Amino acid sequence: MTTSVVSIVYVNDAPAAARFYGDLLGMSPSFETPGYITFDLGPGADLGLWSGQFEDLSPDVPRTSEVCLAIDGGRPDELNATFEQWKSKGVTILREPHDAGFGLTFLAADPDGNRIRVAPKG
To answer: VOC domain location, by residue (predicted)?
Structure first.
């Protein structure tokens, strides 16, 4: 049996969210329907964007989970370069790069207010 972990992020508009995440990840979706779009992140891992599950998701509502994009090697220069790139694209930054005990990390948000952490791969 093949097992895959799919992290699902609820969004207002799946195609718009897919454009946002596709730009950040530098990839195209692996599966698309009007309300559900996935990205193949590698063996056993997918990111799913699902709309229509909630009405009018607001960025103002506090979130209790994050999608974490782990950078191989986790060098501070790589993380800082990703931070500067995202900032130049107008991505909402919730917390600038800082040492969180496991390495340098920063926190951003997608247009629906879902939290995205960038951190070193453990």
So the answer is: 1-121
